[in-house]
């Protein structure tokens, strides 16, 4: 940081004015520090959108906006203004080369903001198509909110940058010039930065307020759909409450089913009082299953299940007979 005495009659007053302007610029740049947040949010959205949209025009526009924001953060304008403010005290101020570097940084900063506004404007029609068709409308609404805030902030900062550029340009003739001049002799700073931006980057065919127009169009479409639904509901209600007599009354008795539900007749098995009764039942069921399965009481059992039941019951009978003989 090089501080030199200003070339003017009232050096203290000029230094105080320059310091006041620089502090105001630093304060304004600190207030718009949310550009870092928007840049991080857009990079996250691009990461999430890569698998969903692939080669979609919306994704390509978002990538261009992200590159523009990255270049905007690389300018590092707050540190440049801070160095100028640190050099300004009492009768001293920054050199002519330092002020020229600050003006070049402001010029680049405003140009990037101008490009950013144009890219946000071109991305909005793709978002409008997503919202009107309903294709991934939730992602499109988030992106529209981020780009809308970024567009408004960029317009505000671009206007401020043109004002700061004009204010700093007034102090270049009063600054001390060093021997080494890094700018070529034919280089000329534009007098009006806003006019230079419009000539260098002509505006796109779409209006600047396309962000708001997309929202208004989506709102109008939603209102039209709501009106159509209300008309349809009114027609449905009028049809539902039509109570005029259109014919003879039909008795409900004819609608009743005359057929009675079928009842399953289950053959009940009487309880066994002795092992002889159980043995008799087993043998009779065995013979019935061989002759006529429909007459057997265990006809619902499969052969495999019946064989297991037969073996278990015969084993039980043998065990009880042995126990009776032992007793």
What are the defining features of this structure?
2 domains; Dbl Homology Domain, Chain A; mainly alpha; rod-shaped; 10 helices; 327 residues
Q: Outline, from the CA principal axes?
A: rod-shaped
* Mean pLDDT across residues: 77
CATH second-level architecture of the largest domain: Up-down Bundle
Please trace the helix and strand order, writing H or E for each element: EHHHHEHHHHHH
| Rounded Rg | 45 Å
Describe this structure in words.
With about 325 residues, the chain is an all-alpha fold. The protein has two domains: about 210 residues, Dbl Homology Domain, Chain A (Up-down Bundle); about 50 residues, no CATH class. Helices cover about 70% and strands about 0% of the residues. It contains ten helices and two strands; from the N terminus they run βααααβαααααα. It has a two-stranded antiparallel sheet. The radius of gyration is 45 Å and the shape is rod-shaped.
């Amino acid at each position: 940081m090089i501080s030199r005495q200003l070339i003017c009659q009232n050096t203290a007053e000029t230094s105080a004015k320059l310091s006041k302007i620089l502090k105001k610029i630093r304060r304004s740049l600190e207030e718009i520090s949310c550009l870092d947040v928007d840049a991080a949010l857009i990079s996250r959205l691009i990461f999430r959108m890569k698998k969903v949209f692939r080669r979609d025009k919306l994704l390509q526009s978002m990538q261009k906006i992200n590159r523009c924001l990255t270049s905007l953060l690389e300018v590092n304008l707050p540190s440049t203004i801070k160095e100028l403010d640190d050099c300004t005290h009492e009768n001293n101020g920054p050199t002519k080369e330092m002020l020229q570097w600050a003006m070049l940084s402001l010029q680049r900063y405003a140009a990037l903001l101008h490009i950013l506004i144009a890219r946000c404007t071109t991305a909005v029609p793709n978002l409008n198509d997503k919202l009107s068709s309903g294709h991934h409308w939730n992602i499109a609404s988030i992106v529209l909110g981020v780009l809308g805030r970024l567009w408004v902030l960029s317009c505000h900062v671009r206007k401020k940058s043109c004002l700061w550029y004009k204010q700093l340009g007034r102090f270049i003739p009063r600054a001390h010039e060093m021997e080494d001049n890094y700018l070529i002799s034919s280089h000329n700073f534009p007098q009006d930065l806003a006019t230079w931006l419009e000539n260098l980057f002509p505006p796109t065919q779409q209006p600047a307020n396309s962000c708001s127009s997309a929202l208004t169009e989506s709102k109008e479409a939603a209102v039209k759909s709501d009106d159509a639904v209300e008309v349809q509901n009114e027609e449905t209600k009028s049809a539902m409450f039509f109570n005029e007599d259109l014919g003879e009354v039909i008795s409900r008795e004819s609608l009743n089913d005359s057929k009675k539900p079928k009842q399953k007749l289950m053959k009940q098995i009487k309880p066994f009082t002795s092992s002889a009764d159980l043995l008799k039942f087993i043998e009779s069921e065995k013979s019935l299953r061989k002759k006529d399965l429909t007459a057997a009481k265990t006809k619902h059992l499969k052969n495999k299940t019946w064989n297991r039941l037969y073996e278990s019951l015969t084993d039980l009978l043998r065990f009880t007979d042995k126990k009776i003989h032992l007793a």
